[in-house]
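Researcher: Hi, I'm a grad student and pretty new to this. My advisor asked me to get structures for two proteins we've been looking at. I'm not sure of the right format, so I'll just paste the first sequence and hope you can take it from there.
Model: That works fine. Here's the first sequence with its structure tokens right after it:
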Amino acid sequence: MRLAGIPVKTVLEELNIKNHSQLKTWMKWHREGAHERLHQPVAKQYAYGKGPEYESETDRLQVENRYLKQQIDVLKKYKELERKWLEERL
């Protein structure tokens, strides 16, 4: 598997993801449009359709906010790495 022409090993190392099969699973869910699975906590992702339960709407929003911030951080880091990889190719 390659992401935008970048070897998976490089993506795993740069984003500090330890499990190759987990990355493959996430990419499969992304390709298939199963984005709701990516929103579930890691330990609950395989309980398809059984999202986490929250005590209040505030708790749910706090979890969602934390998730979105993490997603932005990963995307920023990936974009920076992609720029670096493209510069190295030139």
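Researcher: Oh nice, that was easy. Here's the second one.
Model: And its structure:
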Amino acid sequence: MFSKALKKMDENTVNFMIEQMKKALEEKDVALSEKDAALSEKDVALSEKDAEIAALQAKLAALEH
């Protein structure tokens, strides 16, 4: 009886630890997705700025000639 109770407690502990690890991984996945989205937004902003710089450089080159 005693060993069955210990075995069940061990199983419960293992299951609890697995659930905690899964939860932590899910939270990290969410955080990573949020960071990916933020980086994508910054990439878009940088691309827009690069395009604006190229347009201004073209205007400047046209004015110099």
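Researcher: Is there anything I should tell my advisor about the second?
Model: You could mention this: The two ends are 95 Å apart (CA to CA).
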